[in-house]
Amino acid sequence: MSSKNPSAAVQLLxxxxxxxxxxxxxxxxxxKSVAGETRYAQAVHAELVTLGLDxxxxxxxxxxSVIAEASVRGATDTVLIASHLDTVPVDGMVxxxxxxxxxxxxxxxxxxxxx
Length: 115
Description:
Elements: H1 8-17, H2 38-50, E1 54-58, E2 65-69, E3 101-103, E4 106-108
Antiparallel strand pairs: 1-2, 3-4
């Protein structure tokens, strides 16, 4: 993986990692600028629509999510992919938690070893 010319998939992943989506966890000290999944849900929704999927934003307040459907002609099975969009708080991180970096063949975001 090259940090100078990342693939379209790596660039999209970097863009998604850079979107603040901190679970507010009923805390009043988490800045509104990073709290909630709405920004991330909107980006995921836009990407799915661009790919031709039938997608909708769901949820209340700043805790939005996305539901999407893709139909394949002749398919007899259904696959459900369920994930979450929120991330952990960024309290005390010594890195910029919204600036993913490529090191060697790894894309590093907010996971272990970075904060």
